[in-house]
Amino acid sequence: MPDTILADPTMLKFGIGQPVPRQEDPTLLRGQGRYTDDLAVEGQVWCVMVRSPYAHGVINAIGTEAAKAMPGVLGVFTAADMAEYGPMRCLLPLKNRDGSPLINIERGPLAADKVRFVGDPVAFVVAETKAQAKDAAEAVEMDIDALDAVTDASAAAAPGAPQLYDHIPGNVVLDFHFGDADKVAEAFAGAAHVTRLSIRNSRIVVCAMEPRSAIGEWDTAKGRYVLRVGSQGVFGLRNQMANDILKVPVEKVRILTGNVGGSFGMKASAYPEYACVLHAAKVLGRPVKWTDERTGSFLSDCHGRDHEVDAELALDAEGRFLAVRLTAFGNMGGYLATVAPLMGTGNFVRNIQTNYQTPLLQVDTRCVVTNTTPISAYRGAGRPEGNYFMERLIETAAREMGKDPIALRRLNHIRPEQFPFTSTNGSVYDSGDFTALLDKALEAADWDGYAARKAASEARGMLRGRGVGNFLECTAPPMKEQGELVFEPDGTVTIVTGTLDYGQGHWTPFAQVLHQKLGVPFDSIRLVQGDSDRLIAGGGTGGSKSLMASGAAILEAAELVIEKGRKAAGYVLEAAAEDIEFAAGRFTIMGTDRGIGIMELAAKLREIGPLPQDVPNALDSRTVFDQAPMAYPNGCHICEVEIDPEIGTVKIDRYVSVNDFGVIVNPLLVEGQAHGGIVQGIGQALIERVAYSEDGQLLTGSYMDYGLPRADDLPSFGFESQPSPCRTNPLGAKGCGEAGCAGSLPAVMNAVSDALGGMHIDMPATPERVWEAVQRMK
């Protein structure tokens, strides 16, 4: 934390490091939150999407006449009506191994020539009521010639596979390569031992609690679009909608986001429905509302994960890592979402090394389009996967070489004296003590008491296993972030930020940072984050960077307040500005007890008459923080499972994690974030999996077929900290939002493998898969 630390102990109750309850919760727990579907704009009408029932097919015609004639229908729109709008496309400047750019896909709001997944929108209906719109949507006629479909990436890249696009030969949009292939091959050829695993990173449905919803409005007087929508950041979404899709100046678009019931990456970018409701609002002169139903969410919300990976680790005779190599297929779905290729390319590269000294690294990934729902970022977005692959390789290598897996990790850990450490992927780790953290986790897990617990399980006919997830992940790339502080007439202080809370609880830790820096009363701090009109910059929320970005921007803005305050206090106290000092929320004349509190000074500036030109008339400040580097949260999760060999069920019996999140502003919120990530990792490891039929029909299209973890699937989680403050941002924070997944995927699956005698099975470890593995053990 920077220089100003509050001296008044009564104020430290809400300062950095205190477990302050979330200020958002009383409102949300009373059901008083304002989500998009809670809104009703005067005169609004309803939109319902018409989606393809085929995974792949040629569109001959979309018949709309019957639907248009139905009661209450105001309009039925197809791709021809939306031709004026620009496409959605991948925004990443990725290149193929030959240096050529990836083959992009320009996706219009509605499918025009072909449909490429079940759920692909081909039309939409607007009617006075939702029921009328739904009835009319069912009357839209789709003349589509079905084509063969392909749903697995490796199958789509194989010779003779159905081709989704004429301009994408072999369905491969990107042939990605990183690393020195010759040196890596030489290391593998000379290795004392090579471990190889084929690993499926299963596809999942995001399952945010709040389905997507949007209200489009057209302000005729201002010639301006207004979109009310759940998002992860209004500034970036406004720019995408204005620049790429609506093709208007950014000032002609306003994005408003209220409460958001979860996203995990899925609501970060534009979707077809957003252009549709805005178009209809402009054409009809009425606000147009659309809210998805859960089956529609399963079909149309971007899915997560889905990689097929051959992972290899080369070791010398002592067990030192020589090289790691990933050869992968990444499933993109039917279109390229904004960041779709990132997970299996750059984020594999950045995260496969984790916290180990690994001299050589190679990643080869073919990103492939298939007849499935598009893929995008999901909690961790390639970072949990990189850690999962490495930890599975380490456990398997230790078993194959007859070595202790804990000793193998210690041998290869990056050591504290090596910081700053430049990793093989180019990342520069600034801090950490990975071996000490591992040792603390072993103690917290009662590692030495495991033998007795295993014997007790065996006495009851159960199989017991334990697993370690010793992870390190890199946070999202740096982005500019707005920090603005407004001293309001009612005595409150408003923080304006470009990040956006979709469940994390930003208000409280942001207020703690400001409270400690300026001494502003904690209960007087407010947060504005969901109005694009208030922003001049904003990276949104994603990649575990919000506190590092917004926290730093708040501190920078607070420094400007102090600078203004010295000049204003000097005038009010009749002293020179250079003689004014600031501490604990109070400006004082140095060497005296004469002073004025910051809130009193803000009020006085509003009251007194004209001020001299060099005296500020308010303490308000605005700044744009210019990009803190990535940070590297890390930790160790240890999981113990019991397996019933008769029916294949897996029970998580014990679970602890020790984490290095740098400076922790609010321990209560950090622990909650860790718990959420762990549970989502457990869900993917044991329960969740998207399944498609051969013709591309989604077989897991509702909660009747798609499982999520429940309270009785989970143990109590042990949580401890072993922080090493980050040295590259002013708060010393490292980010925590996605680390739970990075630790839980390997910890759970290593435990399952251990219980099965070292056998590898892919996620999810469902009772069927586990039972089959048990039979193979006999």
From TrEMBL:
Residues 30-148 form the Aldehyde oxidase/xanthine dehydrogenase a/b hammerhead domain. Pfam families: Ald_Xan_dh_C, MoCoBD_1, MoCoBD_2. Keywords: Molybdenum, Oxidoreductase. InterPro entries: Ald_Oxase/Xan_DH_a/b (IPR000674), Ald_Oxase/Xan_DH_a/b_sf (IPR036856), Ald_Oxase/xanthine_DH-like (IPR016208), AldOxase/xan_DH_MoCoBD1 (IPR008274), AldOxase/xan_DH_MoCoBD2 (IPR046867), AldOxase/xan_DH_Mopterin-bd_sf (IPR037165). Gene3D superfamilies: Aldehyde oxidase/xanthine dehydrogenase, a/b hammerhead, Aldehyde oxidase/xanthine dehydrogenase, molybdopterin binding domain. It comes from the Bacteria. The keyword Oxidoreductase applies. The keyword Oxidoreductase applies. GO terms for molecular function: iron ion binding; oxidoreductase activity. Signal peptide: none annotated. PANTHER family: ALDEHYDE OXIDASE 1-RELATED (PTHR11908:SF132), XANTHINE DEHYDROGENASE (PTHR11908). This is Xanthine dehydrogenase family protein molybdopterin-binding subunit.
